Predict the 3D structure of the following.
Amino acid sequence: MASLSAPIVIGHRGASGERPEHTLASYELAIDEGADFIEPDLVLTKDNVFVARHENDITGTTDVGAHPEFAARKTTKTIDGRSHTGWFTEDFTLAELKTLRAKERLPQLRPANAKYDGQFTIPTLAEVIALAKKRSKELGRTIGIYPETKHPSYFASIGLPMERHLVAELKAAGWDSATAPVFIQSFEVNNLKLLHTLTRIRLIQLMDGSGGPADNATPSYAAMITPAGLKAVAAYAWGIGPNKDMVDKGEGTPTTLVADAHKAGLRVHVWTFRAENFFLPTSLKVGTDPIARGNVAEAIRRQLATGIDGFFTDFPLIGVTARNAYRTSAAK
């Protein structure tokens, strides 16, 4: 099945299979390995600066717990209906966050990454943009960014709305069109609808195999992938970002989601391909060690055959190699 657009490879949190996620080192490596886009998940600081962290809870991805000067800031919050205890970006200024150092989020699965603990700072969106532009110029190819607004309803509820702030920062970088090397993604709906009125940058509606948007804008993600649901998404988004298992679990027959989305005029960027056996279906595991690499390239090939328009991966080199091999075989 043909893609609507030439498939892109998105460095998921950079090259997060090989460096601690959401660090400039991780993004640099993703670019070196050929990623078309790098993905910063965005949260806000107390002084309203976008920084790249998977969550606003930075307990597991920084050394904040080892800083006695911040011990009193440990707290419990309810975010998107769930209780979290730890340290949160919105309770720190950017200057304070810059005193912290990143660490590997999955040290048991990625011990090699943990060797880089303590070496890297938390990057701002401005630093990620500057990196993408610098490397684009050096390499003579366009490297885009693929920011995700994390918990936008929560941040709005504490007086830190994201949408206009993000659009302004991207516009200042010269990016405010449907041809800009940017996608903005979100699991929520209403913030994408607002963004649709504020910018021409392409928007991606994220979705998972269970549950629904935290803003309760639609009953469930399942409702969003019906023909009527996809038509509604197409009114404000350029594409969808489903969990890859919603397209193909790696065993059995793929679903019709890609064809259904394409029929609605939506591109499909699936997440996330990880190389370790722990994340792969039985048929693609190699050996029994959960942290050893399995045949993720075959998982990618299978999804490319369904017509996906792009994919996120923690291992951009594997992704780029698999994508290019598929292109070559498909052209024969």
Observations:
- The chain has a mean pLDDT of 97.
- Residues 73 and 258 are 45 Å apart (CA to CA).
- Residues 316-331 form the longest helix (16 residues).
- The first strand starts at residue 8 and ends at 11.
